[in-house]
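Q: Study each token:
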Amino acid sequence: MKFFKPFYIQPRFFYVGIGIVVLFALSYFIPVLFNVAQLSILVLILLFFLDFLIVFIGKNKIEATRILPDKFSNGDKNQIKLEIRNNYSFTIHLEIIDEIPEQFQVRDFKIKDVVSSRKSKTIQYNLKPTERGEYYFGSLNVYAASILNIVAKRFTFQSGAMVPTYPSFKQLKKFELLNINQNSLEYGLKKVRRLGHSMEFEQIKDYVLGDDLRTINWKATAKKNQLMVNQFQDEKSQPVYSIIDKGRIMKMPFNGLSLLDYAINASLVISNVVLKKHDKAGMLSFSKRIENVVVAERRSSQMQLILEALHNVKTDFFESDFSRLYSSIKRHITHRSLILMYTNFETLDGLERQLPYLKAIAKSHLLVIIFFKNTELNSLIENKAETIEQVYDKVIAEKFAFEKRLIVNELKKYGIHSILTTPENLTIDTINKYLEIKARGLL
């Protein structure tokens, strides 16, 4: 039985068989076709056994290896490589079925290719995970057939591989260099004019266009008979915390990813930016409890700690407890810090319930509330309404969009900074806000 287990009859055999049956049926009306049908069935049987011998004689005629990355980047395309070696003495036709993880819900994954005699070939395909966790691969099945393509032999390789999926670490490469240059401007980073400075003196230098006139050193100017300015060092080692709301309001999906996963990916990138700017990066998440706490530090292992903490963010999307968050921040974050809070408010009433806690946090820290535009509403607003029902839908959509803008104004009234952004622009907008705060010396 083991001998016949990898044995598969190809569809071509059945197509030819159906054609022979049709010939037999037509021979009832055209007798000469009866002999043709008999000859055809004899030829088919001979080719069947010939193809069987060609494909099944010998061992290890096909070698295959699946090359997986150490970890997947969530929300990004991850490349998988298949190394195929043909040890047959003739060109082989391959049908590759890789048992990819169940999270992708792909039931018809299939790759067809041709590999020449005694040659190797690399086949690549991409997978885009949309949730964090462990992804288990099954067997790599390779079906080999000759040019006759009547029978095929199945070869099975590499059963039971696992790849963990982490927050989108691929985005780190895009924003690795934060000195504003042409490339970073293409990604959407804005060059912000510096409005303030620290009080730590560095040097006296020649005045150039754009320097702050308030920093002119008049004594040095009189001495050298040209404008001289004081240069101050940037504030460094300031604590920056990414606080992620993992409650039910962050469950809304967008392009396959939940708002929670967008917030996690953005937190990873902004933490890397913060460390590159010589500040201290930390994080925590909250819903019913405060979890995944990483104290803001600037050390070589900080990014790995944050990456692991973000990878381990788990939630059942309960109602978020902002009062518990406030008490935790007051108890554990004792130095004035920049707090980037990823959450979402759909209505002004929803904000007002949490506003007392947000105002209390903003008294001791520089608080930035980051929440999301509902992009589905934009399509309703932009589309022309043709029926009464569509008019109602459009009015309600405009009301919700207007409430988002009211939320921004309400937060501004109490000195709380905010970012209202779309999920795909979350990372860029967060980085720009951080750079603006640094440039203006607000922290």
